[in-house]
């Protein structure tokens, strides 16, 4: 074990295994773009911040850097705007003067930015291996198979796809093709209200995060656990009978966030004993047992707002990605802010965007080269856009 005062202040213990290892059994050769062409500066280069600043200054208004809330502090320092995935994609679209958008986030976010930005704008992901384990849990092939199962059960007409922003462009396109909508963790309730109301759905297939779907259906729409079934793409027919598909109001995809899924009911009980008067504040991607035991539940933007607006002396145990929790603690030394888990847990794919990759991408742009451009197939982009536009019309 190593000692890290900043992490100890959050109530967590640093270990040599500082990041959650995702996809431990996966074939490493299947990872997208792990190698970067050209010279990647060494992480130990003391000149990285100066080089990033110089390249950014040389590019001027031609580059716009987006930083997701879960990014590291040294990368966030170079972001022109910070936010959640949808806010960032919208911000990119609102800056047509920037021909290069450097997205410090993960792959599905860069895809959304490419869909929403103009044709002359290039979206760059500094490390192509920055994927998302949740988004990868629903492939286009699996989702088409699930739709076939729903068709076989004779209930496709009354089934509306609602897909979380944290999904690939292919899943967003599936959603648009079948008259559904995208949602974020901020508007999932409104998306489900629309699907069951104006859209006239009898049931929703919710992709790919089962926890956000279940928590929203139960806590916001008053459904019960019995209204929800889980479609497991690794089992024939999703592991569900035709009657189960027909009777369900929510068909939840068996996907989850590997970071938020780590928090347990025991974490909640333990922190309440350890920090008297603490308020447990969690993201709705957490498991049902955690969300139902928490004091406050909401999106990343909501979590930031609650902590920012709380009076001095407030105490929070926050259940979301550790980079953000650490930043909130640093910003509010007059409040007690601890991490909900006792062990360190960063999102390993978000952390792939580091200073060497940022410098490498910016210096290439300054030389007139574009590296790691993310482009979405035009037909996929058209249907994805339809589902995204549907979300924008939600009341
Ligand atoms: S925090 Fe979870 S949902 Fe977000 S990028 Fe990481 S794995 Fe994906």
What does this structure look like?
With 395 residues, the protein is of the alpha/beta class. The protein folds into three domains: 28-132 and 350-376, NadA-like (Rossmann fold); 135-257, Rossmann fold, CATH 3.40.50.10800; 260-339, Rossmann fold, CATH 3.40.50.10800. The chain contains 16 helices and 13 strands. Strand 1 (63-68), helix 3 and strand 2 form a beta-alpha-beta unit. It starts with a helix and ends with a helix. The relative contact order is 0.18. Mean pLDDT is 91; it is low at 15-37. The chain binds iron/sulfur cluster. Residues 70, 106, 132-134, 166, 257-259, 321, 347, 349-350 line the site of iron/sulfur cluster (SF4).
Give the tags:
395 residues; alpha/beta; Rossmann fold; 3 domains; five-stranded parallel beta sheet; four-stranded parallel beta sheet; 16 helices; 14% strand; binds iron/sulfur cluster; pyridine nucleotide biosynthesis
| Count of the domains | 3
Extended strand count: 13
Strand fraction = 5-15%
Terminal Cα span: 50 Å
What compounds sit in this structure? iron/sulfur cluster
Q: What is the H/E string? A: HHEHEHEHEHEHEHEHEHEHEHEHEHEHH
Numbering strands along the chain, what is their spatial order in the largest sheet?
6-5-7-9-8
The best one-word shape is globular
Topology of this structure?
Blueprint: H1 5-9, H2 48-59, E1 63-68, H3 73-76, E2 81-83, H4 85-93, E3 100-104, H5 107-116, E4 122-124, H6 140-152, E5 159-164, H7 169-177, E6 181-183, H8 188-196, E7 203-207, H9 210-219, E8 228-231, H10 242-247, E9 250-253, H11 265-274, E10 279-282, H12 288-293, E11 296-297, H13 300-309, E12 315-319, H14 322-331, E13 336-339, H15 355-366, H16 378-392
Parallel strand pairs: 1-2, 1-3, 3-4, 5-6, 5-7, 7-9, 8-9, 10-11, 10-12, 12-13
